[in-house]
Specification:
5-stranded mixed beta sheet; 29% helix; 141 residues; 4 helices
């Protein structure tokens, strides 16, 4: 029974990659004081497109949504927050469109703001909110 479910899951994944096409999508990135745009073939995760275009995004889990480091603010597009992202988001982040870039599948044009992570780390150190015994999560303001 388990083997049948695994085979069906694999067939569905392959069918989705071969049959579902999202066409050309424009990704607009606002990072610090610069704005970049690039056109991609939709269907992959945002973090992959960003890194492929030279935009560094912190991530230590390889896109499995278990570290919460790859936060970006989605200004346009991107869809709804997924259940896999909720544990990493504060109420304010949920309301302001913060998402994990490893969980955002690009299906249409999207605009994102990437925070200055160095400034985020400085705030954590300054406010002494970092506890090495807890998972490191930060809030994008």
């Amino acid at each position: 029974m388990d083997g049948i479910l695994i085979v069906l899951a694999i067939i569905l994944i392959i069918a989705q990659r071969l049959l579902v096409t999202y066409g050309q999508c424009k990704i607009t990135v606002n990072q610090e004081s610069e704005k970049r745009e690039f056109i991609v073939q939709g269907g992959d995760y945002l973090i992959n497109y960003l890194t492929a275009n030279g935009i560094d995004i912190s991530s230590s889990c390889g896109g499995k949504a278990i570290c919460g480091y790859c936060k970006v603010r989605v200004l346009k597009g991107g869809g709804d927050l997924l259940p896999t992202e909720e544990p990493f988001m504060s109420r304010e982040e949920r309301l302001s469109g913060v998402r994990l870039s490893c969980q955002v599948k690009v299906k249409s044009d999207i605009e994102v703001h990437i925070p200055d992570y160095l400034e985020t780390v400085r705030k954590i150190v300054k406010n002494r909110t970092y506890n090495p015994n807890r998972r490191w999560r930060f809030i994008i303001e």
